[in-house]
Design a protein that fits this description.
38% of the residues lie in helices and 28% in strands. The protein has eleven helices and 14 strands. Strand 1 and strand 2 form a beta hairpin.
């Protein structure tokens, strides 16, 4: 599989802030590539450099075999861009927004009108196509913004936080459409801090923290080390510090932690026998409500590699959702 995008040694500084520091990676043709990191990691800056909206201080960019370092616009005809905030016009209808974008891409009138109608159907917006974009819900606005990025059938589609701050149903539909585009051979470049979204959609993922890539690999390879660990979540009432203290001597091959006062996490190199553990907890006054074996997730990998706790990312999601609700 050939590389359709190659970035090498990208650096970008805004005043005293080093947004990107020696970022290098490549994206294969037809790949769903994820850029995963917290807010402020440099994800949007990277997209702006790759799509010609900004220039790197140093480094090179090649897209579709074209050198975009000196001429950032050289490959724009190959690109579709969906920014984290819509750039469509509230005073135009959904249909007119799409046909206007088609005109900017140089599409003929008949072609752009046909393509606009096609995309409105695909995104479930056909009935709303005649309505003003300013009256759309957040989810509808997001879907039309993605449709606008697809209007000219780009070879590479860049998506910056496409499902942040929208309703569950719209997010699910967008993920399904992106998966369909991937199956049809479109190259997709996704930035997100929704870890479960990246795990579900992407072939390979780059972890970006404070402007640096600290790991790039396939989802399968990223999860492999954790699959050798066995994890168990036990929810129970009456779980005291005294009970927790007796567990390590009784089960020396297990590792215990208590993220909350009514939850016990158990880890081991071998499968955990639930029965003896539950019996000991109940003998010492705990009421076991649930014991569940946990499947390793990309969130676990992210926390282990970056040291950034999942709770911090969850708070960022909530902030993004609140920001989206206020806009």
């Amino acid at each position: 599989m050939t590389d359709v995008l190659v970035a090498s040694g990208l650096r970008k500084r805004f005043g005293d802030v080093q947004a990107l520091a020696d970022v290098s990676f490549s994206v294969r043709r037809g790949e769903f590539f994820g850029f995963l990191g917290p807010n402020g990691a440099g994800k949007t800056t990277t997209i702006n450099l790759l799509t010609g909206l900004a220039r790197p201080d140093t480094g090179t960019i090649r897209v579709g075999g074209l050198d975009c370092t000196r001429n950032p616009k050289a490959a724009q005809h190959l690109l579709g861009v969906v920014s984290d905030e819509s750039n469509l016009y509230p005073e135009l209808s959904g249909f007119d927004n799409l046909t206007f974008c088609g005109a900017l891409y140089g599409m003929g009138k008949t072609e752009r009108r046909h393509r606009a109608g096609e995309l409105l159907e695909i995104f479930g917006l056909a009935e709303a196509g005649h309505r003003l974009f300013g009256g759309y819900s957040k989810g509808m606005k997001r879907k039309l913004t993605i449709a606008a990025g697809l209007l000219h059938k780009p070879e590479i589609l860049f998506l910056d936080e496409p499902t942040t701050g929208i309703d569950v149903a719209s997010a699910r539909q967008i993920r399904r459409i992106l998966a369909d585009l991937h199956r049809d051979g479109t190259t997709l470049f996704l930035t997100t801090h929704y870890i479960e979204e990246a795990e579900r959609l992407c072939d390979r993922i780059a972890f970006l923290v404070k402007g640096r890539i600290i790991r790039i690999d396939s989802v399968e390879h990223l999860l492999t080390p954790l699959q050798k660990r066995h994890r168990l979540r036990v929810c129970c009432g009456g779980l005291s510090g005294k009970i927790v203290d007796i567990l390590p001597p009784a089960f020396p091959d297990l590792t215990f932690s208590c993220p909350t006062e009514d939850m016990l996490l158990v880890e081991a190199d071998q499968p955990v026998a639930i029965g003896p553990l539950v019996r000991l907890l109940e003998e010492h006054g705990a009421q076991v409500l649930e014991a569940v074996r946990l499947r390793p997730s990309l969130e676990d990998v992210f926390v282990e590699i970056t040291g950034i706790e999942a709770d911090a990312l969850h708070r960022e999601k909530e902030k993004s959702g609140a920001k989206g609700g206020a806009s």
